[in-house]
Amino acid sequence: MASGGSAIRGSRVGAGPMGEQDRGFHADRIKISYWDAHGNETVRYFAASLPDEEIPVTIDCPSSGLPAGRDKENPPSVVKLEPYKTHLAYVKERRTEEEADSLLEEALNQLRVRRGKLSPTN
């Protein structure tokens, strides 16, 4: 006699009395379409019993990676990225030494006032 697992030959391991209806495959669902700025439509299904506030207003469109909204006429706009700045561009934007000193002094005075070590008039 062969000994092995407890499964009866021909049965699925882990199969039980629960059917597909109990797992949600045939649960009532609602279909919601999302559109991105390029007009791509993405369809998502949600449980019909889900409250409206739990259904997301926007999602990321899988075909374009852009945000997609539920309003077909006014989808979310394409995100505008700042152009790449070189190190030299950042150096040109730096403050002068006098501006930096005055900003540092102002910040230190605010900290001293908050800690109560100096009155705001001094």
Uncertain segments are none
Tally of helical runs: 3
Widest β-sheet, arrangement of strands: 1-2
The share of residues in extended strands comes to: 15-25%
Order of helices and strands, N to C? HEEEEHH
Sheet with most strands: 2 strands, antiparallel
Helix- and strand-based class? alpha+beta
- Taking all Cα atoms into account, the compactness measure Rg is 31 Å
Portion of residues within helices: 10-25%
What does this structure look like?
By secondary structure, the protein is α+β, with helices and mostly antiparallel strands. Among the domains are: 29-69; 81-121, no CATH class. Helix content is 25%, strand content 16%. The mean pLDDT is 78. Forms a complex with the RNAP catalytic core and with free principal sigma factors. Belongs to the RNA polymerase-binding protein RbpA family.
List keywords for this structure.
122 residues, alpha+beta, two-stranded antiparallel ribbon, 3 helices, RNA polymerase-binding protein RbpA, RNApol-bd_RbpA, RbpA_sf, transcription regulation, transcription
Quick rundown:
The chain has 122 residues and is of the alpha+beta class. It is built from three helices and four strands; from the N terminus they run H-E-E-E-E-H-H.
What secondary-structure arrangement, pairings included, does this model have?
Elements (H helix, E strand, L loop, with lengths): L19 H4 L5 E7 L5 E7 L10 E3 L6 E3 L17 H7 L3 H19 L7
Antiparallel strand pairs: 1-2, 3-4
